[in-house]
Write a structure and sequence with these properties.
Oligomer: single chain
Strand order of the largest sheet: 1-5-3-4-2
Helix content: 40-55%
Order of helices and strands: EEHHEEHHEHHHHHHEEHHEHHHHHHHH
Largest sheet: 5 strands, mixed
Protein name: ParB/Sulfiredoxin domain-containing protein
Structural class: alpha/beta
Low-confidence stretches: 289-303
Length: 445
């Protein structure tokens, strides 16, 4: 396969397009796509007008062969080609049957704002033949295929990528303060976050749970014991499917469910009048008993700090490796709000080198430097447990390998290094360190 720059008129629709059962010519192929895609094609055309063609998903093409053929056959990307044909020459819509008037109107309107020069030349991948492209087409269009294909984000990953999300804050708080069992934590792996979204979007329910919404942030002025009780109950009910989307669709349904919690609901008379953001409360919960720092240091929220790793007084890391000492110093100084990508990339290196040091220093069984990073986390976690660290203290650290939604998960750290689109936030980095700090203090005792 090789890439090429081509013009729109060099591209032909695939008459063997698996979306359809036999096509005779280019006109029929275009009409079938417009007919079958309708609103979806309008949305695609609108996205192309506004954003151009995706650099992450180029068309797969093969040289056209046979008498009268020219240019390239598009093996993957026929919807995009159809949208481009319509945008570049809306007259092709004339006489099309089976296409709604509204669809045609919208496509013609979009064509007025389209500039062919803005997308030409079109960057494509040229395959030697259809069979040469088959593997990649199947990877794109036939599902996850046990990880070989495109693995869709779940609701939690989507929420993390899009940024501030109230449900995500509740989940982080429950994980930090809820003292969840292994089975409860496992149930959160594929948590249907939209169900929690529905509940938290209802003002009356937020009031019953002791929550307020200000500027997109969830806050509470309840003591932790009062707040965690109902939130843990709600999260566990959703995770275990005790309550389902069908029981939360209407506002009355949602209120009925929350009112049924009864004894789990908080005592609102215990409000302090000084609300704090939920992510700060989660960090407070994470830091309880994590280190041997002074009471004053423990009282400081991990989310109040500017850098990823708190100072030595609050987070004692007795590092005796020169390079890792320097990395740790930098991670204690670099402002997270200014350099989140650099901090995340540096932490990824700091994590692996810390694992390598511990594995060699403690002669951890089955450890070697050539293991994949996830396996290194698993092996060192087992070694830490054998050396006296509690299973509960290491839950969040172990999850770096097993839970792609963990704030500092290996998957997310790999994304920072290898994906142009993975952008960590200062908030999730702070939360991520709060979750794993206890493990690092054990590694560097």
């Amino acid at each position: 396969m090789s890439n090429a720059d081509v013009n729109l008129d060099e591209l032909q629709l695939d008459l063997k397009n698996p979306r359809f059962d036999g096509l005779d010519n280019q006109r029929e192929a275009l009409q079938k796509i417009v007919q079958s895609q309708g609103t979806k094609l309008v949305n695609l055309a609108e996205d192309i007008v506004e954003n151009g063609l995706s650099p992450a998903h180029r068309m797969l093409v093969a040289k056209a062969t046979g008498k009268g053929n020219f240019g390239y056959i598009v093996l993957d990307g026929n919807r995009r080609l159809a949208a481009l044909r319509v945008l570049a020459n809306p007259a092709v819509l004339d006489g099309m049957t089976g296409v709604g008037d509204l669809t045609i109107q919208k496509l013609r309107r979009l064509a007025k704002d389209f500039s062919l020069d803005a997308i030409q030349p079109i960057d494509v991948y040229v395959c030697k033949s259809e069979s040469d492209a088959r593997h990649w087409i199947e990877a794109i269009h036939t599902g996850e295929n046990d990880g070989r294909g495109v693995v869709s984000w779940d609701g939690i990953a989507t929420a993390r990528y899009r940024g501030k999300n109230t449900s995500l804050k509740v989940l982080e708080f429950v994980k930090a303060a809820g003292k969840l069992t292994e089975s409860e934590l496992a149930a959160l792996e594929r948590f249907p976050i939209t169900n929690l979204d529905r509940l938290l979007a209802t003002p009356e329910i937020r009031e019953l749970l002791g929550l307020t919404l200000e500027g997109g942030d969830l806050l509470s002025d309840l003591p932790q014991a009062e707040l965690i009780r109902p939130l843990k109950k709600v999260v566990n009910d959703i995770a275990s499917k005790t309550i389902t989307v069908g029981q939360l669709k209407g506002k009355d349904d949602r209120l009925k469910y929350v009112n049924s919690l009864k004894a789990a609901l908080p005592d609102l008379s215990r409000r302090t009048g000084t609300p704090e953001p939920l992510d700060r409360l989660a960090a407070h919960a994470n830091t309880k008993g994590m280190s041997k720092a002074s009471p004053a240091a423990k009282a400081r929220s991990l989310l109040d700090r500017k850098a990823l790793i708190p100072g030595q007084a609050q987070t004692p890391l007795n590092i005796n490796d020169q390079k890792l000492q320097q990395m740790c110093r930098e991670l204690r100084k670099l402002p997270l709000d200014t350099y989140p990508v650099s901090v995340a990339a540096s932490f990824r290196v700091f994590l692996e080198l810390s694992l390598d040091h511990y594995g060699a220093e403690k002669k951890v069984k089955d450890y070697n430097v050539d293991l994949p990073l996830k396996k290194k986390v698993e092996v060192v976690t087992a070694g830490l447990q054998l050396n006296g660290a509690s299973k509960r203290d290491l839950q969040a650290f172990r999850a770096l390998a097993s839970n792609p939604n963990a704030a500092l998960s290996i998957d997310r750290l790999h994304g920072v290094i290898h994906s142009r689109y993975a952008l960590p936030t200062a908030s999730e980095l702070r939360t991520g360190w709060a979750e794993v700090q206890v493990a690092f203090t054990k590694i560097w005792e």
